[in-house]
Every structure is written in structure tokens, then in C-alpha cells.
Design goal:
10 helices, 68% helix, mainly alpha, single chain, 160 residues
Length: 160
């Protein structure tokens, strides 16, 4: 809820985990989203130790990059999240909202952030694991394609 990105140490560390193209995407995220993602990545690094490879840390840092497309602030995100709970993330409803205009479109884009972010990452050549986790981070564990221990660490580290 507070403004601002991560501090200089976390920002430098996070940027060092990303390719140049990924770093540009990460920098396009809001300050609070970058702060959140850096905290998630630090928790993943502690949980996995040597198994926290660069693609895994990039997944932690960029899992919410698709939220950039919605351009919603805090209250809009609350409304979008509640809307998602009400419709159960029905893909037909979300697609129709994305075709609408104004706030409804932005809510639809917010609810599609995993796919939108994964598509962005694929376009810049991110590792398949980074792309997969970004797309799957709101799915149930039985639908993950990433290794279970990595998915569990990423999921447990993400407190949103």
C-alpha cells in the first residue's frame, strides 16, 4: 500500500538477476510491484539456496509484470480482485471485459495479467521456466509445468 520501489540494495540485486530485456520490463512495473517482487525473489532465494537459478529468480521478479497493462492503482486493483472472485476468473467473461472500454477493460486486463506477462516475457526471450511460472502462478499446483519444489517455493514466497 505504501508508494515507492525497493531500496537501492534490493533494486541492484534484482536488476542483476535479469537480462537486459527483462530488466526493462521490471523497471516498467510500479514501485510497489517492484518492491513486492524483490521481496518474493529474496524469499525464494532463501528457500531454494543453490536451486534458486537465474530463471527462477526472474520468475519471482517478473510474475506480475502483466499488471502493467491494466494501469490500475490500489483501489482499482481491489475492485478487480473482488470482481475476479465473483466471476471465478471465467475466461469468456474476462475476454469480453478486455474488449470493453474504460475501467471494465482495465479490470479484464488485470485479471489476464498472468497470460499478458508471460506473453511479454516470451517476446523478449526469457527462459521457458520464467515464462511458464508467470503464466501459471495463479493456477492450482496440479496444473503447473514447473518442477513442483520450485513452484511451491515461488507460491509460498508470493504473499498476494
Amino acid at each position: 500500500m505504501r508508494p515507492g520501489g525497493p531500496g537501492p540494495v534490493d533494486r541492484g540485486w534484482a536488476e542483476s538477476q535479469l537480462t537486459e530485456s527483462e530488466r526493462e520490463l521490471w523497471c516498467s512495473m510500479s514501485g510497489p510491484d517492484r518492491r513486492h517482487s524483490a521481496a518474493v525473489a529474496r524469499r525464494v532465494e532463501r528457500a531454494l539456496g543453490v536451486d534458486a537459478t537465474r530463471p527462477v529468480l526472474a520468475a519471482a521478479l517478473l510474475h506480475d509484470v502483466g499488471k502493467v497493462d491494466a494501469r490500475l492503482r490500489t483501489y482499482g486493483r481491489v475492485a478487480a480482485t473482488l470482481s475476479g472472485k465473483l466471476i471465478g476468473r471465467d475466461p469468456d467473461v474476462i475476454r469480453s471485459w478486455c474488449r470493453a472500454g474504460g475501467f471494465t477493460r482495465r479490470v479484464g486486463l488485470y485479471l489476464r495479467h498472468p497470460d499478458l506477462g508471460a506473453d511479454r516475457l516470451a517476446l523478449v526471450g526469457s527462459d521457458p521456466l520464467t515464462v511458464a511460472w508467470t503464466r501459471q502462478h495463479h493456477l492450482p499446483a496440479e496444473e503447473w509445468t514447473v518442477p513442483v519444489e520450485i513452484g511451491e517455493a515461488l507460491c509460498e514466497a508470493d504473499d498476494d
